[in-house]
């Protein structure tokens, strides 16, 4: 593999870093050979991390010239993301470890997508996650894979996770980001909302993290076969988003994918509200005039 540390010397962000790597590696295969990439970029080895407290780690010297990645045992997709995350720490010179020469990352660090202002550690973990996602699911390869996907469907997420050898949630985040329609995916655990991912055009989801999945969601109607994406069905939009009473309600659809460990993904698809015809607007304005003037 031709990429080298020289190719990425001036990259100051996870996006720039991933871009330089992908430009130097135009023929990357899928799934991305992340361990080969690590070896080319100064990682001497990848060792098993035998601990319950941490998911991954990085041991390196003061100049960040070489390093060793530590990754906890687990499923291959999860381990691959951990390796890519630690590679991000290694390559971004502005990332400073908690203790000299040693990064230690918990499971929660590998889920972090936002950071509190003024919290450099959270920002480093967020950047390492962005880098890992971009390297494991290169945008140009992801767009090519998604050209075959028309109507939103959780089966597509499962296919992406399989083909790119990433976790289902990593694939779900990418799917929401790159799909052209207004969609969101809610991750639920034991009946409660854990995380929400939505496209830029999808409105804010009203259910707070930690709150129960709405009782009128198809999540609660069964039976749902584990590890099988259910049918896409219409649902009441006001259980997930704010619907103004004076406007026509949009059409919202749900699809549920349950896993055996108590987790589930819920796909939300929002269809645009059709524009009123001139006749409908005329009748609506007449009705409102009569209502506000007291005429019946």
From TrEMBL:
Annotated transmembrane regions: none
Position of the signal peptide: none
InterPro entries in alphabetical order: IrrE_HExxH, Rad_response_metalloprotease
Residue ranges of domain IrrE N-terminal-like in the record: 73-173
The protein's name: ImmA/IrrE family metallo-endopeptidase
Native source organism of the sequence: Methylobacterium terricola
Origin organism lineage: Bacteria, Pseudomonadati, Pseudomonadota, Alphaproteobacteria, Hyphomicrobiales
